Amino acid sequence: MLPPIALLPAFAPWLDLAGLAVFAASGALAAAKRGQTLVTLTFFALITGVGGGTVRDLLIDAPVFWVHDARAASVCLIVALVIWITPERWWRGEALDWFDAVGLAAYAVYGATKALGYGIPPVPAALMGVVTACVGGIIRDVLAGEPSILMRPELYVTAAALSSASYVALVLFGVPGVIAATTAATAGFALRAAALRYHLALPAYRGRR
Known about the structure:
single chain, mainly alpha, disordered N terminus
């Protein structure tokens, strides 16, 4: 029997699918901007959408979510098709970055929550939140031949870490799950939004002086 994920509200699965769609879109767009085929767009959408959750589930010894829930893969396929048949001008600008910021924060909280639900200790559970939110994008960048988000100073992984760590800490202090999830996701989104708006970045290593 699977342990219940009781710390998330009842509508969390739908938020999970919405976040999945955002990440799938970023993967499909990475292929579309390179003039690739529908097959490639679909592959990029799937690997970006489910990559982080797959690694998380394997690490916490849970059934891989998209193998047992047809909605996840279906969302990725539909998103790829939508991007394939729509004009490129619809996907220009920073709109996707803002949607991605929402998905990043929510996915980090969701990943940490699922890890806690499977009995993972607090620190690894917080790290599972980061894995859930970031690994799909890392795989996408590697396949697209772009610098990985891990190799860029922008506040991306840091925002995911803030969301997941905040959530775990609030739960440990006895804050109700819905409040903890909302607060932590808001904090991660705010940091990512500030990074997008003001081009915030972590300082780079300078070596010995």
